[in-house]
Amino acid sequence: MTQRLMKAKAVLSGHVTVEAAASLLQWMIEHPKAELHMGGVTHLHAAALQAIAASRNRIASAPEDAFCAKALARLGRT
């Protein structure tokens, strides 16, 4: 999994693992107005999904994986 965390956006790709969820959550807490770019995500661990659901960060691009994209779309922030 590639995870690039910047001030204004996070770019996620590949498999977003349970290990990545903690750092992603911390980043979202510190950058509440930043966007999540998830266009290259092929798998999203449930812990990462829960972290994203708990945040208010906007999802700028949906994951490649149809199931993950549908789950995130239900949050209403795409």
What would your notes on this structure say?
By secondary structure, the protein is an alpha/beta fold. The chain has one domain (2-73): Transcription Regulator spoIIAA (2-Layer Sandwich). The protein has 3 helices and 4 strands. Strand 1 (2-5) and strand 2 (9-16) form a beta hairpin. Helix 1 runs parallel beside helix 2. The chain is globular. The termini are far apart. 22% of the residues are buried. Keywords: Plasmid.
Question: Quick gist of this model?
Answer:
Helix content is 38%, strand content 33%.
Please render the helix and strand layout as text:
Blueprint: E1 2-5, E2 9-16, H1 18-30, E3 35-44, H2 46-54, E4 58-61, H3 66-73
Parallel strand pairs: 2-3, 3-4
Antiparallel strand pairs: 1-2
Helix pairs in contact: 1-2
